Amino acid sequence: MSRLYESPRQSSALRARLTICLAVFGGVLGAAQFLINLLAQTQFPKDPERLALTASLIVSSRALVAGLVVAAILARLATSEWAGQRPDRARHLLVWVATGIGYGVLTPVVAGMLVPLSGLILQVATGAMTIGTALTWIPDTILRAPYAGMIFGAVGLSTGLIAGVVFAVGGWLIDAANASSDPKVSRYSAWVVMLAFSVAIVGITVLVPPAVLAKLG
After folding, report:
1. pLDDT tens digit sequence for 17-76
2. pLDDT digits (tens, 9 = 90+) for 178-197
3. For residue 86, with 0-12 CB atoms within 10 Å meaning exposed, 13-18 middle and 19 or more buried, which class applies?
4. Which of 48, 91, 142, 146 is deepest in the core (most CB within 10 A)?
5. Contacts of 146 (CB under 8 A, 6+ apart)
6. Given phi > 0 = left and psi -120 to 50 = alpha, else beta, which region is 127?
């Protein structure tokens, strides 16, 4: 349902809220997707094992950033005025299916492109490389980004597409909540749906046995 006579200011608020909610959701989902895919790469006869908390946060940070950026861009495209989309009207489910496919394919690629840079930052943070030396490696890091994106994008494609399905469902529900004709429901329910999905994703990643999660990769 839509609200009639939405002012430009209200439309901007609706679009901004939807973009922020989807960006946060996409970031959390991207990080979880990366950690699950990492478990799936465990070679037989080793059993999949979770990384320590600190290590998990560090290695998944690039996927979090990638998921956040990709989700934010897709959210803006899905609600863009040039595409004839009104923020006070929920998008059709097929729009979110297409958005989910885009998220599932692009997030592993973008995360892969960030691998060389994140590796450089990690070396500086651990003291293995000085800032001056790291700066000389930046051109090489930029040149290696596209190749890393293709490699990691291919490796993470299956997990990415599963994440895309989750993103499509979550985006559809968040959009429906945000576009509610009741201003109070619209103002708060989008955040609630986003948090519920995000907490559920974190819970699954943390609590489900690694051997089960590895089968998703």
Report:
1. 999 999 999 999 999 998 998 888 877 777 788 877 777 887 788 899 999 999 999 988
2. 988 888 888 889 999 999 99
3. middle
4. 91
5. 113
6. left
Residues 6+ apart with CB under 8 A from 167: 25, 26, 29, 71, 99, 100, 103, 104
Token pair, residue 21, equals 């909610």
Instruction: Choose among 210, 206, 198: nearest CA to 28.
Output: 198
CB 104 within 8 A of CB 164: yes
The three-class DSSP label of residue 72 is helix
Under DSSP, is residue 9 helix (H, G, I), strand (E, B) or coil?
A: helix
In this prediction the pTM is 0.85
Rounded CA separation 107/104 (Å) = 6
